[in-house]
Amino acid sequence: MGIHHTRNHPALIAFLCWFRMSSHLFHFIHSESSLFQDTVQPPSLVALALPHLPPPFPSIIVNSLKYLQMGSLFLDDLSGVVVGIGFIIYFSGWLAGSNA
Predict the structure, then answer these.
(1) Which of 12, 7, 22, 11 shows the shortest CA–CA distance to 80?
(2) Cα angle 70-73-76, degrees, rounded to a multiple of 5
(3) Residue 23, SS3 per DSSP
(4) Segment 73-99, tens digit of pLDDT
(5) 62, 40 in Cβ contact below 8 A?
């Protein structure tokens, strides 16, 4: 079994990747903790400690969490582009090999 068994089903792999990426996008758009909101939900221990910190540190921590969240979204988009380019290369090689 393993990955060698799935090489005969590229359409299935393409469908599963598309399904995962579309469900991921649907989650970002329709969740209450969406990236389109300005609030960031810190982890529970950090949220408990934030009110007890001196004034500049809570805003620095919350802003850093927002930038980490935006960086994560950028890396998600970048990985989607890399997967898309990989599919284009794979299918173009597959079609070129079948025409030879």
Answers:
(1) 22
(2) 155
(3) helix
(4) 788 888 888 888 888 888 888 888 877
(5) yes
**How wide is the angle at C-alpha 78 spanned by C-alphas 67 and 43, nearest 5°?**
35
43 three-class SS = coil
Q: Quick check: 38 and 70 in contact, CB under 8 A?
A: no
Helix, strand, coil percent values for the chain (each to nearest 5) = 80, 0, 20
Distance of CA 56 to the CA centre of its chain: 31
Alpha carbons 6 and 87: distance in angstroms, whole number = 15
Amino acid identity of residue 16, one-letter, is: L
In the predicted structure, residue 68 carries a pLDDT above the cut 60 = yes
Instruction: Give the tokens for residue 60.
Output: 């620095």
Tokens describing residue 93: 């090689």
Q: How far apart are the C-alpha atoms of 75 and 31, rounded to whole Å?
A: 19
Q: How far apart are CA 58 and CA 39, in angstroms?
A: 13
